[in-house]
């Protein structure tokens, strides 16, 4: 059991939440303290004032540290505010009846990642998923190392963040004396949670409707493929219904 407190910071559309907790003997996260406050210094999914955002986060981290009597060195970020983009690419290998080797798959993966690095120079890769692998147009559940075939295709799904946003986050938390251990997206966590709850379902759409906004997430083969946000929610539906009534 690792009972040392861990620090998570969730940056949402309307507020920032700072969470302290630990992992119990069953590998479950146990909440110790949580503080939430309105976002200041961020507008239109962009960090507009680094000093204001830094001071706000630093002040609330200090409060959390005092409550749990622990000084944090690392933080896990969960993003649901900054602009996130999605990209799906496929790589191929002609086998001509030969066996698929680990080196073949590694070459495809590195080639696809290099393509993203080359053509998305203003973005940073946050997550990479093995979303699909096929041998002779037949989907294979696991990496098909050792199988024979004529043609192999491998699809990767990438979640990207703007490079300047990434650098701003690094800057903010360096000023808070914190090292960013991981950056996760809220859609990744939600999708993973649903997959864990329903292991028999690995491909689905998830729709979340709030008062002023909503979003749809597409998960394929336990991989986040796509997310789209909309600036309307139940509020506009209620207004339309009230006009009819």
Describe the protein in words.
With 245 residues, the protein is an alpha+beta fold. It is globular, with a radius of gyration of 21 Å. The protein has a 5-stranded mixed sheet with strand order 3-2-1-6-11. Strands 7-10-8-9 form a 4-stranded antiparallel sheet. Helices cover 30% and strands 43% of the residues. The longest helix has 19 residues, at 50-68.
Keywords summarizing the entry:
30% helix; 245 residues; globular
Give a topology summary.
Elements: E1 2-11, E2 15-23, E3 29-38, E4 42-43, E5 46-47, H1 50-68, E6 74-79, E7 84-94, H2 102-119, E8 123-135, E9 138-139, E10 151-162, H3 163-175, E11 179-185, H4 186-197, E12 204-209, E13 214-220, E14 223-230, H5 234-244
Parallel strand pairs: 1-6, 6-11
Antiparallel strand pairs: 1-2, 2-3, 4-5, 7-10, 8-9, 8-10, 12-13, 13-14
Helix pairs in contact: 1-3
Strand order of the largest sheet: 3-2-1-6-11
Shape: globular
Distance between the termini: 58 Å
One letter per element, helices H and strands E, the order comes to EEEEEHEEHEEEHEHEEEH
Give a short account of the largest sheet. 5 strands, mixed
Instruction: Determine the mean pLDDT.
Output: 88
Helical segment count: 5
């Amino acid at each position: 059991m690792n009972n040392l407190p861990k620090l998570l910071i969730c940056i949402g559309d309307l507020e920032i939440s700072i969470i302290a907790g630990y992992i119990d003997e069953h590998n479950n996260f146990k909440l110790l303290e949580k503080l939430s406050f309105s976002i200041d210094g961020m507008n239109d999914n962009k960090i507009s004032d680094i000093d204001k955002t830094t001071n706000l986060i630093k002040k609330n981290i200090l409060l959390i540290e005092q409550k749990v009597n622990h000084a944090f060195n690392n933080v896990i970020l969960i993003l649901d505010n900054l602009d996130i983009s999605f990209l799906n690419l496929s790589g191929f290998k002609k086998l001509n009846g030969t066996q698929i080797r680990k080196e073949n798959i590694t070459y495809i993966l590195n080639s696809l990642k290099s393509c993203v690095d080359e053509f998305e120079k203003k973005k940073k890769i946050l997550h990479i998923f093995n979303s699909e692998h096929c041998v002779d147009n037949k989907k294979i559940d696991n990496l098909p190392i050792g199988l024979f075939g004529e043609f192999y295709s491998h699809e990767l799904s990438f979640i990207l963040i703007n490079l300047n946003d990434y650098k701003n986050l690094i800057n903010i938390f360096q000023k808070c004396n914190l090292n960013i251990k991981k950056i996760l997206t809220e859609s990744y966590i939600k999708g993973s949670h649903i997959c864990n709850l329903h292991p028999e379902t690995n491909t689905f759409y998830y729709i979340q409707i709030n008062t002023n906004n909503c979003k749809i997430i597409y998960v394929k083969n336990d991989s986040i493929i796509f997310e789209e946000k909309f600036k309307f929610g139940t509020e506009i539906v209620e207004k339309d219904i009230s006009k009819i009534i």
